């Protein structure tokens, strides 16, 4: 891995660690390992993995900040990728139609047919890299680069929960209704966040998703 991590303070309450290079599964597994190590430190209240980064929330701000940073960088160098292997969830998806209003935009950008886009989108097993954006939302790794589509220039003010979308080189499923700048190509009835469950989020980092086409509408 080339380059050096970037560290930035979040006021006096925390610190953001950003790994060098592109986001890969191996890098993300090292982020998970770093989170597991640092959450045991006395000065850390919470370690929150993100996409290619880790947010550390301080229990008490370290008195020797440079020593803390040096320890963090040394730990990053030493940790081995954490081979999380969680459960795999199959998601039934209805592609296109009213539930996939931006499928035509993905077709126009990629030059692929709807059937090709659905096949390429549903082929991989996607690893949950991190949770964020809103409760229950999963950042996924593994999408085929051939269906990568830039985020929308004008965000949509509201998409429903269960919207399956593509944004740049990533895909994801909205866990609740809200605004989005991604291209929605389908929908699922799966519930990703429920306060009555323990834990309330359906999936955790290290779990995986497989999209299962149930219908393809044109």
Tell me about this structure:
- The protein is α+β, with helices and mostly antiparallel strands and 218 residues long.
- The chain has two domains: 6-78, Gyrase A, domain 2; 88-217, Beta Barrel (Cyclophilin), CATH 2.40.100.10.
- The chain contains four helices and 13 strands.
- It has helices at 25-38, 65-78, 103-110, 114-122, and strands at residues 6-10, 14-18, 44-50, 53-58, 88-96, 126-131, 138-141, 156-159, 163-167, 170-173, 178-180, 183-187, 208-217.
- A seven-stranded mixed β-sheet has the order 7-6-13-5-12-9-10. The protein has a four-stranded antiparallel β-sheet with strand order 1-2-4-3, covered by helices on one side.
- The radius of gyration is 19 Å and the shape is elongated.
- The N and C termini lie far apart (44 Å).
- The model has no long low-confidence stretch (mean pLDDT 94).
Summarize the structure.
With 218 residues, this protein is of the alpha+beta class. It has helices at 25-38, 65-78, 103-110, 114-122, and strands spanning 6-10, 14-18, 44-50, 53-58, 88-96, 126-131, 138-141, 156-159, 163-167, 170-173, 178-180, 183-187, 208-217. A seven-stranded mixed β-sheet has the order 7-6-13-5-12-9-10.
Q: How many DSSP-defined strands? A: 13
CATH architecture of the largest domain: Beta Barrel
Ends: how far apart? Answer: 44 Å
**What's the CATH topology label of the largest domain?**
Cyclophilin
Low-confidence stretches: none
β-strand amount: 25-35%
Q: Tell me the major beta sheet.
A: 7 strands, mixed
Quick one: CATH superfamily of the largest domain? Cyclophilin-like
How many domains, as an integer?
A: 2
Strand ordering within the main sheet: 7-6-13-5-12-9-10
């Amino acid at each position: 891995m080339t380059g050096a991590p970037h560290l930035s303070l979040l006021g006096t309450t925390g610190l953001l660690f950003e790994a060098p290079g592109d986001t890969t599964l191996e890098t993300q597994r090292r982020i998970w390992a770093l989170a597991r190590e640092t959450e045991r430190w006395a000065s850390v209240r919470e370690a929150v993995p993100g996409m290619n980064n880790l947010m550390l929330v301080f229990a008490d701000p370290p008195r020797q900040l440079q020593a803390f940073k040096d320890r963090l960088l040394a730990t990053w160098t030493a940790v081995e990728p954490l081979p999380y292997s969680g459960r795999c969830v199959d998601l039934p998806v209805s592609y296109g139609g009213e539930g996939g209003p931006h499928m035509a935009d993905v077709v126009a950008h990629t030059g692929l047919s709807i059937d090709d886009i659905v096949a390429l989108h549903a082929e991989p097993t996607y690893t949950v890299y991190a949770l964020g954006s809103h409760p229950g939302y999963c950042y996924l790794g593994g999408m085929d680069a051939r269906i990568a589509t830039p985020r929308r220039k004008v965000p949509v003010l509201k998409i429903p929960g269960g919207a399956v979308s593509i944004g740049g080189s990533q895909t994801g499923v909205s866990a609740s209704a809200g605004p989005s700048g991604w291209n929605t190509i389908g929908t699922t009835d799966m519930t990703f966040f429920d306060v009555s469950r323990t834990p309330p989020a359906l999936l955790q980092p290290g779990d995986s998703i497989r999209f299962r086409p149930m219908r393809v509408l044109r």
